[in-house]
């Protein structure tokens, strides 16, 4: 089928295939590079956003940790102030001869003032060692004055029971209760820790009943020291609902509530959980399982960390709530889908732009291909038009009854011009050859006619010879028939023998003459056959030349 196509169509078809192949290659490379660039932008933007979110989470965690530290520091300042004030009041017992009852009243009033001036505190308390305040606990046994317990020890506790201030005496049972709590610390750690260590202590979060309601709280307690001897412990109770409220507020601030904030004590007790308020006061291992155990391990490293948790990103910032205390931690978790929302938006924007560019590229490519094919068709038509003209001239020569005097006319000096000139030179050589062949054919025809005449004459001579030989045979037969007559007459026989001998000699001469005539005729026929063979060879050459001319004419068409 391809052989039947015109040269113009072949040029357009092959050029179009090449053009479309190049366009497809360029467009494919463009699309590949565009996709690779988009992927690089996507990866780079995702990494940048991830780093930005991690830095933001770390900054938020540090901010909330500082807020936590500030809240505890404010409570510690209250404890420090009370410590100094209570030691001063105790000193007045001897310098101004205050009565023990007045002293206990003044100390209890100082506790009340601190309690009322710090409404964020859940409680303010002072537990003295036995006879540690005035040495007269026995005189106040049986709760005779506010702040004295059943054994007369000064152990005053101001709390907000029922929404208003209430003063209670801490019972000896509570002071001596060393049963471990959730964190593993004894119940009376608020008293025993500073007494035994001589340092300020921050208790692990614990649950306690206040006004019939169980609250999760912690305490800051500090020893009262006189001459390097602990004579009592003063402290404040801090409700952790303020930390929980801070965690909930922080969650609202984190990506429209998508984040989650935890506050962990040094032993892993949940002091704040924005997404799980019912877990407050529980160990993080029990509340969260394996992730809680991992959190505790991260806290023990005492280093700020930002971790990839698979489905979320976690920022952990450890901070000691008060100086010298074991670090607590603020933990912020953010789901990756929230973190990657901006990256997904950017990716969708890039994909949309890529699709638009692809459509525009394909449209421009299609227009360019159509324009290219049109130009190729015009160029191919311009290139094949002279070929068609030459083909038409060749067709005219081929159909012009063998008129070899015609010549092709083409003025351009290109490949087709060389073809035309070569064909004209071929005709210049072919024309005399055809003329010579024509003359040879004429001579061959004459020789053939002459040979035909010779053959006819030879045939006639052979017929005559045949008749003469027949006559000789008849005479011989007659001689045989009359052999008996020879015996009868010798004279007649001799005479007849001489006549027969003469006749035989004549017949031999006739046969020899006929033989020479036949040999001469055979020589003439052999010469004629050579000329005929030469003519046949020339005819074959003429046929080959005509076949070449016909092939050239067909190719040019």
UniProtKB/TrEMBL annotation:
Domain HAMP: 381-435
Listed PROSITE patterns: CHEMOTAXIS_TRANSDUC_2, HAMP
SMART domains found in the cross-reference section: HAMP (SM00304)
Subcellular location as annotated: Cell membrane
Domain Methyl-accepting transducer: 440-557
InterPro entries noted in UniProt: HAMP_dom, MCPsignal_dom
Pfam families named among the record's database cross-references: HAMP, MCP-like_PDC_1
BP GO annotations: chemotaxis; signal transduction
Record field: transmembrane: 12-32
UniProt-listed SUPFAM superfamilies: Methyl-accepting chemotaxis protein (MCP) signaling domain (SSF58104)
Keywords on record: Cell membrane, Chemotaxis, Membrane, Methylation, Transducer, Transmembrane, Transmembrane helix
One Gene Ontology term, aspect cellular component: plasma membrane
Highest taxon of the lineage: Bacteria
Record family assignment: Belongs to the methyl-accepting chemotaxis (MCP) protein family.
The protein's name: Methyl-accepting chemotaxis protein
